[in-house]
Amino acid sequence: MSMHIIPFHNEWLSQAGELLARRHRSDRAALPELPCRFEAPEVARAAIEAALKRKHASGFAALDGGRLVAYLIGDLLIDEVWGRSAWVRTPGCAYDPDDGVEIVRDLYAALGARWVSHGIFSHFVLVPITDPSLIHVWFSLSFGIEQIHALIDLETLNPAIPAIPPEIEIRKAGPGDRQHLADLSDVIWRHQVKAPVWGIQMPEAIQEIREGWAELVDETGVTVWLAFQAGKVVASQGYWPAEPLDDNLLIPEKSVRLSVAGTREEARGKGINTLLTKYGLAHARSSGYRCCETDWRSTNLLAARFWPRQGFRPVAYRLVRRIDPRIAWANGTTLE
């Protein structure tokens, strides 16, 4: 086999679509909750085209003669939260299993070199959990798990709601709950900045977050649930419609996204978030949704233990590698 790594061009889109569709069929064999439409090569091709249309997107292809063996495509995201970062989205990587996964390492060497040369030192990859060999390849490239993406099939959900203790009240938020929501706006980030997550929270954004939470009751399509203990608001969950996107292989049709969930520290361990989850998911099911998606930091020990117990099944990892930025100058060059 004579393998060549070259920049990805549109002439390889059809073969890339075949590889991605084959990968997705394998993924759905283990995770039937995933959307079925990407099993079709033409839909998979459209997903790759959408990935290539993202800002500063580029990629590399591995060729054996005129046959595409594997490809890797990523785009750049530069903002105050993620810094200078590069992202491989869910349609951004596929390979022919008959040729093996090792070639992905060479593709990353080519694409990663381009990123680093532009001062992009934070590299992210969204990878399905169904391919241990591919995950191991990324681990061998110094990537690690940062975020877990998970789904729950609402059609198989037990609709029974547990009895609510007399001191607990659960209800949907309304226009009169803006202050309650604002008061809960710090629950998630105060937990996330602690060990072992150490997720940053910019001080200048705290007031904006507070105001954004207060405005959740005004957002179209958003359902927020509140829990009160002895008359004091102690927990919330927020659900958004999850619109299927051309380049997102994780979101099925008729899905809802559980985007925010938090319980005040003094109210944890009492089953309040479990009750909120039961109410929220049952309401989503009765509203016609078939699936619910959520995600959490792998280092958030409360979330990592809680959501799988509620029935959420991990479907993908967000992997990250952060490269020492000193490589921009500590690379063998000498001062004259």
Short précis:
The protein has 336 residues and is α+β, with helices and mostly antiparallel strands. It has nine helices and 13 strands.
The average pLDDT value, as a whole number, equals: 96
Low-confidence stretches: none
Q: How far apart are the termini?
A: 45 Å
Percent in strands: 25-35%
Number of domains: 2
> Biggest sheet: strands, sense, closure?
13 strands, mixed
Order of helices and strands: EHHEEEEHEHEEHHHEEEHEHE
CATH architecture of the largest domain: 3-Layer(aba) Sandwich
| CATH H-level superfamily of the largest domain | Gcn5-related N-acetyltransferase (GNAT)
Give the overall shape, derived from the CA principal axes.
globular
Instruction: Determine the oligomeric state from the structure.
Output: single chain
Q: What attributes characterize this protein structure?
A:
alpha+beta; Aminopeptidase; 9 helices; Acyl_CoA_acyltransferase; acyltransferase activity, transferring groups other than amino-acyl groups; GNAT_dom; N-acetyltransferase domain-containing protein
Verbal overview:
The protein is an alpha+beta fold and 336 residues long. It folds into two domains: 3-141, Gcn5-related N-acetyltransferase (GNAT) (Aminopeptidase); 153-315, Gcn5-related N-acetyltransferase (GNAT) (Aminopeptidase). 29% of the residues lie in helices and 30% in strands. The protein has nine helices and 13 strands. Strands 1, 2, 3, 4, 5, 6, 7, 8, 9, 10, 11, 12 and 13 form a 13-stranded mixed β-sheet that branches. The longest helix is centred in the first third of the chain and has 18 residues, at 13-30. It is globular. The N and C termini lie far apart (45 Å). This is N-acetyltransferase domain-containing protein. It comes from Fraserbacteria sp. (strain RBG_16_55_9). One of its GO terms (molecular function) is acyltransferase activity, transferring groups other than amino-acyl groups. Pfam families: Acetyltransf_1. InterPro entries: Acyl_CoA_acyltransferase (IPR016181), GNAT_dom (IPR000182).
